[in-house]
Every structure is written in structure tokens, then in C-alpha cells.
Amino acid sequence: MKKNVTVIGAGSWGTALASVLADNGHHVTIWVRDPKLADQINTKHVNEKYLPDVELSTHIVASTDLESAVTGKPIVLLAVPSHAMRQICRQLVPFLDPEVLLIHATKGFELESLKRMSEVIMEEVPVAISSRLAVLSGPSHAEEVVLRQPTTVVIASESGESMLRSQDLLMNANFRVYTNPDLVGAEIAGALKNIIALGAGMSDGLGYGDNAKAALLTRGLAEISRLGMKLGAMPPTFAGLAGVGDLIATCTSKHSRNWRAGYLLGQGKELDDVLEHMGMVVEGVRTTNAAFALARREGVDMPITTVLYGILFEGKDPRQGVEELMRRGKTFEMSYLDPNGA
Ligand SMILES: NC(=O)C1=CN([C@@H]2O[C@H](COP(=O)(O)OP(=O)(O)OC[C@H]3O[C@@H](n4cnc5c(N)ncnc54)[C@H](OP(=O)(O)O)[C@@H]3O)[C@@H](O)[C@H]2O)C=CC1
Ligand SMILES: O=C(CO)COP(=O)(O)O
């Protein structure tokens, strides 16, 4: 069944998801802040700023008018950066259908409150209830999705019906959608992998090799899982697409803005210059800050995050950071195998 769907946000990810929806024959509206970009999408069918060189479906209609974009729409997909989520939700509230299914595809925490995106949405949107809220996560670079390259993602929701509706909406021969009831885990895994991607880029920028990268991914996953479980996630989620899957995609790909930012930092560039140069959201920077605070609040050991926090916000030299990680005290690989019960 073809649906009326509105995508909020015409950055790389919103545009790529609108393309998937248009491929599936849905009537897609994409809400865009910039009138020039809306005009470009409607007349030239391109998004030169975020996904240049890709021809978009003529069935994607861009609008700068939030009211007409959202009113009466049964499904709204949010693809804005984490720092914009609360404000966007506030703007949406007057126009949302009382029965709307909300899917968000944002990978980050709200820095000020340390809340997950679904918590922010539930706080701001009175019609948002957990039975009609889903998160889209997993290894999915927008640049590959718009080229219809094989991609797998996960839709997580506390509601079986919302998972199945979201899966039906998005799934096609190039875009395979799995379901997972662990919304908390999918959100946390998707957000925290960006920290490790920054570290992986930094390691490459410093000239370190595959051993260092493998160490970062594996020990990164260990600390992501530790914090995630403390915050209520289910452990198997971290072994799935939203966990290890997205870690691999983000830490090893030049498409990743987080990897690229890390690479430039590893080469000695300043954070402000790097972010200006990127011109797109680098969620891992704010997420490092949020995860550092969450780890302290929850009493969870996150050595890689702590070192990255020092590099990003306290002027620590990246090489010194690596040395600190390598010289940490001796420890069991898996604390639950420690016979002394550490
Ligand atoms: N790109 C990808 O491959 C993937 C991204 N994601 C996640 O999707 C989310 C969005 O990222 P992505 O699309 O890549 O980001 P981009 O940097 O490509 O685009 C950001 C988009 O958000 C808009 N925006 C920025 N600030 C605000 C604001 N304050 N209010 C409203 N809109 C705002 C921008 O509008 P404007 O141009 O007007 O500034 C632009 O449309 C992130 O959480 C990211 O981690 C998840 C999976 C894959
Ligand atoms: O989440 C992503 C791929 O799954 C995109 O990662 P970046 O934001 O680092 O580009």
C-alpha cells in the first residue's frame, strides 16, 4: 500500500531515506529549511549541498512549509541532527496527526539532558507514544543508499506493529530492513559508534595500522556495550547491525564524516577548523561529550571515550592519548571471566 510520508530534514540522510521511500512508490514530501534547496530538489531533482552528483526521484516533493508538509500525514520520519531534535519536535507539535507513526533516524544524544532521541520526542510531542515510535539504525551511508547499493538496517520499537509497519514502508531489494524490539539498544549503539569512528579516523590520521583499528573497534564495542547495558539496552543488540555492523561501516569508510573528522584531527588539525571544513554534522563530537558525562554519572569505565574527550575538549595530544590507553593497568578482556569478580 502506498503511503503519504513526510521526511523532516533534507541533509544527506533525510534525502537518502526520501529516495528509498520514493523507490517504494510512496508519496514523499521532504521538509527543507532552505528555500533554494527546496527549489533545487523540485526543479532539478538534485541536492547539491549534501548529495551532489545524484539524480533524485521526480516523485520527491520538497517543501519549506512545515504545516502543509506534516498536516494529515500518517507517517513522519525525522532525520535531523541530534542538536536540532527538540526544537524541530516543538515546531511539529501543532500539525501532527493524533495517530501519526514517528520514525527517527538520528544518531546522537541531547547533550544538555543526556537523553536519547526517543526520550526527547516523547517529552515534546504529546501524540508520540511508544506504541507508535520507531528508530532506524544500522550501517547505512547515505552516499551508498542513494546509489541503491545493498544496505541492511534495523528498525527498533517497543511496538511489534510499529516495527512491521516501518519495515513494510522502507524495505526493498536494495534496502533490507530487520526488526529488533530493543529501541534503547539501537539508539545507544547508533549514537556511541560515532565516538569510535572519530577514534578510528584519528588512528589512521596518526599513521597507525590495522592492529590499532581492530583494537579500537573491539574495545570500543566493549565500552559501548558496558554503558548501553547500564542504560537498559539488551546485550545482543550490540552484536547486531546497530552495534558491530555500524561500527564496521563507520570506522572503515571514507564516507563517514566522523571517520574523516578524526582523520584530520589525527593529522594535527584543530577541531574548529575540522568542523568548519566538514560542513555537515559530525555527531561523534557532541556524543563524546555526552557519553563522557553519562559514563561518569553511571560509574561506567569508558577509557577510549575518556581519552577522546581529552583530545577533543582538553587539548590532549592524540599520540599521548594512545599511549595512555596502551599503558593502562592490566585487565581481563571480559570482566565477567575474571575469577576475582572484578
Ligand atoms: N548521512 C548518513 O549517512 C547518515 C546519517 N545518520 C544520522 O542522521 C542525522 C542527520 O544527519 P545527516 O542528514 O547526515 O546530516 P547533514 O549534515 O547531511 O544534514 C543536516 C541536515 O539537518 C538540517 N539542520 C541542521 N541544523 C538544524 C536545525 N537546527 N534545525 C533544523 N534542521 C537543521 C540541515 O539543514 P540546513 O542545510 O538548512 O542547515 C540539513 O538538512 C544525524 O544524526 C546522523 O548521525 C544516520 C545514518 C546515516
Ligand atoms: O551513521 C552512519 C552510517 O551508518 C553515517 O556516519 P557518519 O555520520 O560518520 O557519516
Low-pLDDT parts are none
Give a short account of the largest sheet.
8 strands, mixed
Radius of gyration: 20 Å
* Total individual domains: 2
**What is the CATH class designation of the largest domain?**
Alpha Beta
**How far do the termini sit from each other?**
54 Å
Q: Count every beta strand, where a strand is a DSSP E run of 2 or more residues.
A: 10
Looking across the biggest beta sheet, what order are the strands in? 3-2-1-4-5-8-9-10
For the residues shown, what is the average pLDDT?
Answer: 97
Give the CA-based shape.
globular
- Output the structural class: alpha/beta
Strand content: 5-15%
Topology as a string of helices (H) and strands (E): EHEHEHEHEEEHEHEHEHHHHHHHH
What is the CATH T-level topology of the largest domain? Rossmann fold
The number of helical runs is 15
Question: Helicity, in percent?
Answer: 40-55%
